Predict the 3D structure of the following.
Amino acid sequence: MTTPRDLLITAMEVEPSRPVERGEMSLALAGAELIDFLAAGVITLDDDRIVPGGGAAVADRLLDQAVASLVREAPYEAVSDWLWRRGRELAPAYLAALEAEGVLTRQRSHWKPFQDGQRVLADSPDRRRAEDRWESNEPVLVALATAVGIRDQETEDAPNSPGAPDEPDEAVETVLAAVNDALIELESVKQRRAIEQAAFDNIWRGQ
């Protein structure tokens, strides 16, 4: 189960058409966790409700936290609620974990040796695995990357092209749809706040 890591590494590896914002990535990472949990049998979905199962997650601190935070009593938690709750500041947490493990390193400037440098990807098995999934057009990774703008919808390969990996099943599609809905909602909130801020600024300017 590596989809959250692979998505974040891909975001750093591929030059997107626009910068991916932290809130967008955090929501997508929360969705990626659920998709990996579905694959491992850690959860199942009852309609859009997350039902804990008997599978085991890989040894990973962030995934252990995610499993521990699952709601284990009926009526359980909706996928959309999980995305907003679990996705809060999730991108910085994954960045910190990758840096602590050496997957990311700091590239310091020769002229500013005492300042923290820009995060860059080290040559690692994690990076190569993410590259393999991306280059093979793995549908889940491509769908999440498209949702956050790493890959344009127009450039997405045809899903039924010869040799393409199997398409996501219904439960995974439910999670992907919820991620897209959450991202649309996030954009609406940002636009509304921008309008409110512009109106507030105009009041102070006397307009």
Remarks:
- Confidence is low (pLDDT under 50) at residues 109-115, 156-164.
- DSSP finds eight helices and five strands in the chain.
